[in-house]
# Entry
Amino acid sequence: MLTQAPKGTRDVPMTESYKWQYVEERIRRMTALAGLREVRTPMFEHTELFLRSVGDTTDVVQKEMYTFMDKGGRSITLKPEGTASVVRSFIESRLYAETLPAKMYYLSMPNFRYEKPQNGRLREFHQFGVEVFGAPLATEDAELIALAWNITSSLGVSGLELHINSIGCPECRARYYEALRAFFAPKLSGMCENCKGRFERNPMRLLDCKEEACKAAAAGAPKMIDYLCEDCSSHFETLKQALSALGIAYTIDPQIVRGLDYYTKTVFEIIARLPEGPLTVCGGGRYDHLIEEVGGPAMAGVGFGMGMERLLMVMEQTGVVIPKPDLLEVYIANYGEKARMAALELCAALRREGVRADIDHVGRSMKAQFKYADKSGAAYVITIGEDELTGGQVKLRHMESHVEKPFALSDAAGIAAFVKGQNHAE
# Structure
């Protein structure tokens, strides 16, 4: 057990971390273009935060949260999702008093849900998410959807589909709940115990149940979109117009309600069509009452979340090849104690000049050092031995062409300039 990760978790070994860095770099670049700033929140929060925000009728709260009592007798929960923590941070930091809207993102945020590990879903997973507070217009919804769409497609993922829906506001949802209860009442005896409990408190949750009997019972259920009030209907129409203006095709999907209770109006999912079936890679929507419910001022909110593990899995399954980075530019082979010290000094100087460099710390033979340099992908090798120390000159050897260029042993800046210039030329 000491050498096996807990069920539902996985390592990112050093041989795979470049894939995460590749995706993270793309995300950081595109969020910066959209004027977003990064936010970081703790790994755990007071349990009450999730009970109030996520909703006590959701599977997340009822079945999946990692909750425990700390040594001070406080109920603590490992974050099951990111939005509630960002909202709490926004309120605690009094950012609502700053210039609005506040636009922020979080990247590779660890989240925890106790559920059956399955396709792209783990008990510890990492999310990229965006939250915008103080922007009530549907054009913001469209812009965030476009950001999620553009990031995913720019990473090479093909076969994407955007599904949108509106789940209204508390006012128009009350009439919809009455229609749902009337629809499900004669079917309730054949549904699961969770759905029976949700029938009165939140009948919309019945549409999101994964039990086969409950999914069958939900077939033909009334659609929220038919019960929208004038304001919610107008918001949804504007969203559709904005998406069309941005050139993003969409499908209206009445079955999308999302798994968390805080959503209002817009909800959406970006779905990838894989050989084994469709898989959601991004989901989100609007939550115009959440900030107030958590204890802040009345303020609109909208955002999305994207699982990093799932995104990387979808990239792999759709044939995206992430290029492996070169670990080293220069390897300094050496023999003898004095040569090793000189190599150590030159290596440090090259790193200060911005060159990826390394030397032998194992005591390998010269032949083995050259072999290691080749496997590590070093473009150049410098050899330091007794002759080089005596003459104060070294040769920078290009590993592929074997062409050598002489430099003074002390000229780290010159070596670095040449290496950078050659890399730029290539």
Summary: The first helix runs from residue 17 to 33. The domain at 17-169+229-317 is CATH 3.30.930.10 (BirA Bifunctional Protein; domain 2). DSSP finds 15 helices and 16 strands in the chain.
